[in-house]
Design a protein that fits this description.
mainly alpha, four-stranded antiparallel beta sheet, 16 helices
C-alpha cells in the first residue's frame, strides 16, 4: 500500500496560513485563552490532591474525570452538532463552563473542596468540553479553505500546546504565591472570552438542516458509518495504540515532579512547559517535515521518540535530562495526533463529520482516561518506575504495528458529495417515518464477468452500509445464469431519501460505476415499503 505523504499537489502550507482569515483568527485566539485556562485548572486540581493519601490514584483520576465525559457523551454531542446550529450550541456550552469554573473558584476560596467534590466538578467541566469538541471540529472546515485544513489541524495542536506550555507555568507561579482559587477564577474568565468571541461571530452562510434527523436515528447512522468504514477504523486504531501508553506521561508527571525530582508546583509547570515547547516546535515544523517523510514514517519516528522519553522520565532523577527528554516527547505527541486528526477531517463527508470526529474524540479521550487510571493503579501497586517502563514497552509494541496498520493514502480519494442517483418516480410518496424500506436492484451480468462483478459489488456494499443500510445481500435467482439481485434494508424512507440527497460521495459513485460497467443493461430498482402498520418482518416460530 502506498503510504500517505506529500504528493505533487500537496505543497506544504505555512502552519499560520489559516490565521489570515479574520474570523478564524479571532476564534483561534479566544480558544487559546480557553485552553490556557483549562490547563491552569488541571494543574490546580492535581495540586490540591497531591498531599492526600492514595495521591497516585487521585491525581490520575483528575485526568480520568476530565476525559471520561468525552468517552460517554462525544457521539451524542456529534449528533447535536450535525443537526442544530453549531454556533448557538457552542455559546450555550461555554456559558455552562463559566458557571462550573465560578463554582470551583468559590468553593476552593472558602475551603470547601474535598476530593470527591473536586472530581465531580472536574467531571462536569469535562461534560462541557465533550459537548464543545465535535461542534468546534465540524465548524473548522466552514472557517478555512479546504487546502488549509491540515494547517488548521496543526494550529489546533499548537493552540493546545501553547496552552500546555503557558498554562501550567502561570498556574505554578500563582499557586505558589496566592493558592489554587485564583487559577480556577482565571479559567472562568477565559471561557467567558471564548463565549464572547462566538457571540460576535456571524456566519455569512448560516448552516441550516432542512429536516433534522431524529436523535436515535442520527446516533445509529453515525455509528453505522464508522463501523462500515475501514479507513476510519484504521485511523482510530492508530490513535489508540499511541494514546494509551502515552497517557502515562501526562497522568503521572505530577508525581514524578514531587516524588522523584523534588520539585514544587513551579517545577511541575516547568516540566509541562517543556512538553508544550516541544509540541509547538513539532506543529510549526510539521508541514515542512511532511515533504521529506511519509505519514507512516513520521508515526514510526514519533513512537520511538516517545518510548525513549517515557524511559528517561521514569528512570532518571536529573531535572535537565528529564526536561530534554520531554521536548521530543511533545514533538512526537503533536506529530501523531495532528496527522490522524487531519486525515479524519479530510476523509469524513460533511453530513457525518461531527459524528465521525466525535467517535475519534471518544477513542482519544477514552484512551487517555482509561490509560490514566490504569497507569495510576500500576504506580500505586508497583511504583512509578515500573509504570513508566511498562508504558514504554507498550508504546514500542504499538509503534511496531505501524507496518501492520499503516495510515491509508487518501490523496486520490474523492470525498465530495455526489447526489447521482436518478430521481424517484413513485406512484405514491411514502411518509418519511415509514420503514423499514427494502430496496432491490436487479443486474444482468455475463458469466465471464461474474468474478469481477462480485469483487466490484463488495465496494458497493460498503457504500450502502455506510450511508444507511442496516442489512445488505447479493443473490442470484436459481432459474437464470445471468441475473443478480442486490437487496438492502434501510431503517426508514427518510433515511433512504438522505442517501439520494447527499450522503454518497464521489468515491461511492466510482465504486457503483465500476460495478455497472460489468452489467449488460440498466439495473432495475424497486423500493418496497411496509404494506400495513405493525410488524413488517417476522419469524415463524412454534409455540411451546
Amino acid at each position: 500500500m502506498v503510504t500517505a505523504g506529500a504528493g505533487p499537489d500537496d505543497r506544504p502550507a505555512s502552519a499560520w496560513a489559516p490565521l489570515r482569515t479574520v474570523v478564524y483568527r479571532n476564534l483561534w485566539l479566544a480558544l487559546l485563552a480557553a485552553n490556557i485556562g483549562t490547563w491552569m485548572q488541571t494543574v490546580g486540581a492535581q495540586w490540591l490532591l497531591i498531599h492526600h493519601s492514595n495521591a497516585s490514584t487521585l491525581v490520575a483520576l483528575v485526568q480520568t474525570a476530565s476525559l471520561l465525559p468525552v468517552l460517554l457523551l462525544a457521539l451524542p454531542a456529534g449528533v447535536l452538532a450535525d443537526n442544530f446550529d453549531r454556533r448557538h450550541l457552542l455559546i450555550a456550552v461555554q456559558l455552562f463552563l463559566v458557571a462550573v469554573a465560578v463554582a470551583l473558584t468559590l468553593l476552593t476560596l472558602t475551603d470547601r473542596m474535598p476530593p470527591a467534590l473536586l472530581l465531580t466538578l472536574t467531571f462536569a467541566f469535562g461534560v462541557g468540553q465533550a459537548l464543545t469538541l465535535p461542534a468546534w471540529a465540524a465548524v473548522i472546515p466552514e472557517l478555512v479553505p479546504q487546502d488549509q485544513l491540515r494547517s488548521a489541524s496543526a494550529l489546533g495542536s499548537i493552540s493546545v500546546n501553547v496552552a500546555r506550555a503557558v498554562g501550567p507555568a502561570v498556574a505554578g507561579v500563582l499557586i505558589a504565591r496566592t493558592g489554587v482559587a485564583p487559577v480556577f477564577g482565571i479559567n472562568a474568565v477565559a471561557f467567558g472570552i471564548f463565549a464572547y468571541a462566538l457571540w460576535r461571530w456571524r456566519p455569512r452562510n448560516a448552516r441550516a438542516v432542512e429536516v433534522p434527523e431524529r436523535f436515535t436515528a442520527a446516533l445509529r447512522a453515525g455509528s453505522r458509518y464508522v463501523r462500515h468504514s475501514p479507513t476510519v477504523r484504521r485511523l482510530l486504531r492508530r490513535a489508540l495504540v499511541f494514546v494509551v501508553p502515552a497517557s502515562a506521561l501526562w497522568a503521572l508527571l505530577p508525581l514524578v515532579a514531587a516524588r522523584r525530582l523534588g520539585l514544587g508546583s513551579g517545577g511541575y509547570g516547568l516540566l509541562l512547559a517543556a512538553l508544550g515547547v516541544g509540541a509547538i516546535t513539532g506543529g510549526v515544523l510539521l508541514a515542512v517535515i511532511r515533504t521529506r517523510l511519509s505519514a507512516n514514517q513520521l508515526l514510526l519516528i514519533a513512537g520511538v521518540l516517545f518510548t525513549v522519553a517515557l524511559t528517561v522520565v521514569g528512570t532518571v532523577r536529573v531535572v535537565p535530562l528529564v526536561l530534554l527528554a520531554l521536548l521530543p516527547a511533545g514533538m512526537a505527541w503533536v506529530t501523531v495526533l495532528a496527522n490522524v486528526n487531519a486525515e479524519m477531517q479530510l476523509f469524513l463527508p460533511s453530513w457525518v463529520r461531527a459524528r465521525g470526529l466525535a467517535v475519534y474524540q471518544v477513542c482519544f479521550a477514552g484512551g487517555q482516561a482509561v490509560g490514566a487510571l490504569v497507569w495510576g493503579l500500576v504506580a500505586d501497586m508497583a511504583g512509578l518506575v515500573v509504570a513508566y517502563l511498562a508504558a514504554a514497552a507498550l508504546m514500542l509494541v504499538g509503534t511496531a504495528t505501524s507496518r501492520l496498520w499503516p495510515l491509508p493514502d487518501l490523496r486520490s480519494v474523492n470525498r465530495e458529495p455526489a447526489a447521482y442517483w436518478p430521481q424517484l418516480h413513485l406512484a405514491r410518496e411514502p411518509d418519511p417515518g415509514v420503514g423499514p424500506v427494502l430496496v432491490t436492484v436487479q443486474y444482468t451480468v455475463r458469466p465471464e464477468r461474474v468474478g469481477s462483478f462480485l469483487a466490484a459489488m463488495d465496494q458497493v456494499r460498503g457504500a450502502r452500509q455506510r450511508t444507511g443500510a442496516m442489512r445488505w445481500g447479493l443473490f442470484r435467482p436459481a432459474e437464470t445464469t445471468d441475473r443478480f439481485v442486490e437487496v438492502y434494508l434501510v431503517p426508514s424512507w427518510d433515511e433512504h431519501l438522505r442517501q439520494h440527497g447527499g450522503r454518497l460521495t464521489g468515491e461511492d459513485r466510482a465504486a457503483e460505476e465500476r460495478a455497472r460497467e460489468l452489467t449488460d443493461d440498466e439495473p432495475e430498482v424497486r423500493h418496497l415499503v411496509p404494506a400495513a402498520a405493525g410488524p413488517t418482518l417476522s419469524d415463524d416460530r412454534e409455540e411451546l
